[in-house]
Task: inverse folding
């Protein structure tokens, strides 16, 4: 799915949806939102949380948030929702540019710094979607399996 982007027009969220989750200002706050959502699910289902699945979800949320800050003009919206056996993470930013995979070396063969976030997201998440926003920018929505 990450080789080809799924692009839709986002329908937007209601103001009530936005009010229930504050937009993170830094990746650590995105990770805290994921931890809260997963802990809530484990309490509600009376099951133990899969530590590896939680680590994957934390890493994906952190990478999406970091990429929005570094390459997308900042985070404009952030949502975490439990869906079936997974966790849906949506991060919106101001950029219309699609995420890209950058080769690990430049044309002279020197190793590049960074450029690993999007491949990490694509490897750990399912149902990766990039949606154009009506007001400009994009929303990347992924589902990270929790089991």
Result:
């Amino acid at each position: 799915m990450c080789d080809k982007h799924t692009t839709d027009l986002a329908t937007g969220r209601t103001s009530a949806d936005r009010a229930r989750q504050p937009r993170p200002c830094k990746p650590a706050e995105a990770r805290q939102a994921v931890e809260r959502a997963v802990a809530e699910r484990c309490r509600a289902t009376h099951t133990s949380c899969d530590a590896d699945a939680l680590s994957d979800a934390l890493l994906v949320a952190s990478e999406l948030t970091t990429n929005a800050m570094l390459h997308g003009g900042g985070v404009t919206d952030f949502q975490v929702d439990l869906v079936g056996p997974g966790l849906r993470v949506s991060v919106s930013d101001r950029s219309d540019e699609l995420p890209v995979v950058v080769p690990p070396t430049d044309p002279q063969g020197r190793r590049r710094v960074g450029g690993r976030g999007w491949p990490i997201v694509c490897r750990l998440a399912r149902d990766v979607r990039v949606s154009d926003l009506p007001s400009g920018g994009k929303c990347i929505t992924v589902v990270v399996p929790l089991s």
